[in-house]
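Tutorial handout. Part one gives the primary structure; part two gives the three-dimensional structure as tokens.
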Amino acid sequence: MIINHSCHYSPWNLIKYFTFRRNTLAMNTAVKRKTVDKDDDNDEIENNTKTKPDLPPAKKSRMNKVDLPKESLDVSDYYIDNGNRKVYPYHYTYHSYCKGRWFGKTLGELFADEFRALTPEIIGSKIEKGHLKVNGQPVPLNYQLNYNDFITHRIHRHEFPVLAAPIPIIHSDDDLLVIDKPPSIPVHACGKFRFNSIISILEKENNIKDLHLLHRLDRLTSGIMIMAKTKARAQKLHEQMRNREMHKEYLCRVDGHFPE
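Part two.
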């Protein structure tokens, strides 16, 4: 009996036994995990099916949108004061379709989250005066924003001044414009700047419109800027930039001496 017992539990048999047990447990665990994952997937599909009506429709509905209206630059003008280019205050209307992160929020929640400078009292006053509308109609603060809602917000705009520096034109032809951008002027409209931007100044004072930006310089940075006047030239220059056929160099003027 002892010999038979020892023979039955010989090292080789023990190895085979535990290997079989390990593989069996692994297979059972894998099957169990697969079953659980499948159940989770079914639950997720079921939950998604249940919540689907609450989600915004597919983005293909945006194909019916029209381009946002472009505000005219004739509503105001520049004046020079103490070496600065300033803009007379003017009325301006912001246009925006309801963004994904706004969907389901009330109008009051939207302004409380993203435009905190406007109190509910100010927003209510704007609605009463017709300066804040959704789909062309005044709505209450508790109006819940829907996908594709068109929001308009009319304000009295006061722009920050910039240096009253000229914009030297280095080269201009039918396809290309090269300028020497002065400091303090942003390239395009942003934040508190619209009239006081390179694009707007060139359009308003030089009658150069519909420029295609190829690159940008920071507001406080001066230097050479290349802009295309046609879409075809813009695509060609973009391709040259992607292929590293063009390069930029930056120079920094400092006061003092760098340590050795």
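Part three, for discussion. Residues 1-18, 48-66 have pLDDT under 50 and may be disordered. Residues 11-51 form the longest helix (41 residues).
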